[in-house]
Specification:
Keywords: Oxidoreductase
CATH architecture: 3-Layer(aba) Sandwich
Order of helices and strands: EHEHEHEHEHEHE
Helix content: 25-40%
Protein name: SDR family oxidoreductase
Structural class: alpha/beta
Largest sheet: 7 strands, parallel
CATH topology: Rossmann fold
CATH class: Alpha Beta
Strand content: 5-15%
Number of domains: 1
Radius of gyration: 18 Å
InterPro entries: NAD(P)-bd_dom_sf (IPR036291), Sc_DH/Rdtase_CS (IPR020904), SDR_fam (IPR002347)
CATH superfamily: NAD(P)-binding Rossmann-like Domain
Family: Belongs to the short-chain dehydrogenases/reductases (SDR) family.
Length: 299
Amino acid sequence: MHPHDPRVTKCEEIPVEFPPQYQPGQPGLEFLMVPRPVSELPGKAGSGKLQNKVAIITGGDSGIGRAVAYLFAREGADIVVVYLNEHADAAETQERIRQLGRSCLTIAGDIGDEKFCREVVEITLSRFERVDILINNAAELIYEEDMNNLSSEQLLRIFQTNVFSCFYFTKSLVPYLQPGSVIINTSSLAADKGYQAMASYSASKGAISALTRSLAVSLADRGIRVNAVAPGRTWTPLIPSSFPPEFYMFYGSINNPGPIKRTAEPYEIAPIYLYLASEESRFVIGQTIHVNGGEYMGL
């Protein structure tokens, strides 16, 4: 998203309809999306809530991860963007963070590989000598109209990316985290609301919510806070790279089941991550905060 794109200046100008589109492979490319996701709210100056902190963000090249990276940079943090192979998106994110006056390191690889996760931690420590915030955000999703068509290999892959990576990064990083450090996982509305075509994804996100509670208890005595964010429908590259084009009838304003009647943009999800990463939430642990426009929770 260009920093002067007028869509980010007024809520009523944010896209609420999305033409059918499909990308043949995950994790998807943001620069190909129509319209482009809205990643930031230009002109809103930061207040130094994360001044000189260092944050590792998986999936930080695009979508919610990119929006979190931009907001954290505005608040004074240096960013490590971990991504699979979306090099153009990662380069765009890196350039924008540098425009915001902060350092950005990009590292490409498979977070389902424990060795790679350890390498990310080592490279980050070598470059910045510290890590204060870990955002486990990257995910894969398989659209499965019939669960019988889901292979064991696909199921394992979903959990390797979505769940195992949280273990790998946390295990590698905890020895280096100081009191006051923060881990924020990304769960989903799908963890609590059943979706016929997303059983494996929903199960993985439910596992993340449970993992978040357990890690919060086990790391509290070290002064490390662990929480999660559970977004609802959000316009990110995961959508066109996962769902068939006809799925978009559920992303427009007319058929959206939430009372707000539209899909979220990434910049609307990012402030919850900032809250959980800052000292403002120092008494909050083990929580999964839902940001879903009221689609669930009885609304």
